[in-house]
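so i finally got all the pieces together for this one. its two components total, 222 residues if u count the protein bits. some of the lines might not be protein, just check the labels. i wanna see the whole assembly predicted at once instead of chain by chain like last time, that was a mess tbh
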Amino acid sequence: DVKVTQSSRYLVKRTGEKVFLECVQDMDHENMFWYRQDPGLGLRLIYFSYDVKMKEKGDIPEGYSVSREKKERFSLILESASTNQTSMYLCASSYQDIQYFGAGTRLSVL
Amino acid sequence: SQQGEEDPQALSIQEGENATMNCSYKTSINNLQWYRQNSGRGLVHLILIRSNEREKHSGRLRVTLDTSKKSSSLLITASRAADTASYFCATDAHGSARQLTFGSGTQLTVLP
């Protein structure tokens, strides 16, 4: 079974803090994705990566950056957290068109 | 932008009944997928239907695709309380099989 692990289920941070969300997959997938999910808006793609050290902007990259130093790990970085980044963050990896998701990190920025 | 839009937004049925959810999309696709999300968890892939297919079955799930109408439906037969979840359609709207665009989902509640 594919396993996508997100480092935290719940996270509470202060405005202005630098926040790291970590995601690890164990199936050697090339493609990895970060989404945020908000009520009524579905999933919105923040960034994705097709390979190590490669990243591409999704639909809503503003305020975020990513890092992919190793194939299995894809990190989402909030350089200076703001209250409007309070959300559920979902990481996924994909193989043959199908995406496999982690359990999600619910981030609250106070 | 929202490529897939599910309808209805919420659906409540009794155990044993069938549940039908619809998805509409705007541009041409290579495939359409349905995912399920239990409350507060990640999404789980249910079924994929390619643009040259019209119908696909998997257990109690039946998916149809009408590319002329740019729409798909997901039917869950003989629903169970454990089917209570949000259901999302996803399309590879960017023309790349690696990116998906998700709709805002249908919240299904199955009452025991």
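Chain A touches chain B at residues 4, 31, 33, 35, 40-43, 45, 48, 50, 58-59, 88, 90, 92, 94, 97-104, 106 (CB under 8 Å).
Chain A has a mean pLDDT of 94.
anyway lmk what u think
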